[in-house]
Write a structure and sequence with these properties.
alpha/beta; 9 strands; 14 helices; N-(1-d-carboxylethyl)-l-norvaline Dehydrogenase, domain 2; 3-stranded mixed sheet; 2 domains; Rossmann fold; elongated; 6-stranded parallel sheet
């Protein structure tokens, strides 16, 4: 399959690499062109603009950080809506708001194009291993058309039905619950530490029982080791963006999300204290500071 990939951050580079390794013909574009050097060295074509991406292939995958970037890539001058042929497919794999996904869907439909929202679950090492979880929402024929790409990038594709916004909602809920889990762990480990309970002992107690799930194991370990200041898999800034997506959806649909408000404030505190680039599990450092132990 001939594919263009737009957005080469840590996740994008890893995902595009899996598409290339699976034998697909790949063109890549990123505003900072150097981020595509490794992919180009491995055989990908370097594209000079979003317009070039739209002209290169009838399937374009975008992996951009936020709504503003998605709107620029899709709706801006020289964007995908203007450049893609009728019947072409745009697959947006970032985490975006329900409102933005609805707007992008309508724009592509008006241009005779197909749009799939396919946000992913997994940190960069998971993407590098081709083991992402992919939630796909969009027309069934379009999803079937790009399924070989999902197979290259992920271990499983979760169907979310014909509406792209359904997939966006699933990812927003997933990330909100993950933030809530980190906050709960942070509070629990702070209480345990003030009672003299070693963090590694508490982690074993929790994850050998009812909390034997990857989220608790991974983030519990990061909290015990205080490794949130190491190379981040998901920064506090990006985490705040995703928590705000949940709060925005809740407000629009009249769904109270009090826990999301707590997570937002914890992340805002971390950013205010100079930790915007730390892993979002730095929420635990803010909890420890509030508890007088950091």
């Amino acid at each position: 399959m001939k594919v263009a990939f737009v957005g080469l951050g840590k996740m994008g580079v890893a995902m595009a690499g899996q598409i290339l390794a699976a034998g697909h013909e790949l063109g890549v574009y990123n505003r900072t062109a150097a981020k595509g050097d490794d992919l180009v060295a491995r055989g990908a074509a370097r594209l000079a603009s979003v317009a070039d991406a739209a002209a290169f292939a009838d399937v374009v995958v975008s992996m951009v950080e936020n709504d503003k970037a998605l709107a620029a890539v899709t709706l801006g001058e020289g964007g995908l809506v203007a450049g893609l042929a009728r019947g072409a497919v745009h697959v947006a794999m970032g985490t975006h708001s329900i409102a933005q996904v609805k707007a992008i869907t309508e724009a592509h439909e008006a241009a005779g194009q197909q749009f799939i929202s396919a946000p992913v679950m997994g940190r960069p090492p998971v993407a590098e291993a081709g083991q992402l979880g992919i939630v796909a929402g969009g027309p069934a024929d379009a999803v079937a058309r790009v399924q070989p790409l999902f197979d290259a990038m992920g271990r499983r594709t979760y169907p979310a039905g014909p509406l792209p916004m359904s997939a966006a909602a699933a990812k927003i809920v997933n990330n909100f619950l993950l933030a809530a889990a980190i906050e709960a762990l942070a509070e629990g480990f702070a209480l345990g530490e003030k009672c003299g309970l070693p963090g590694d002992a508490l982690l074993e107690i929790l994850t050998d029982g009812l909390f034997a799930a990857p989220a608790y194991k991974i983030y519990g370990k990061m909290i015990v080791d205080k490794s949130y200041f190491d190379a981040p898999g998901f920064t506090a800034t990006t985490g705040l963006k995703d928590v705000n997506l949940a709060l925005g959806a809740g407000e629009a649909l009249a769904v109270p999300l009090p826990t999301a408000g707590i997570c937002r404030d914890r992340l805002l505190s971390a950013i205010a204290n100079g930790h915007a680039g730390a892993d979002w599990s730095v929420m635990a450092h803010e909890q420890a500071r509030a508890s007088g132990i950091a």
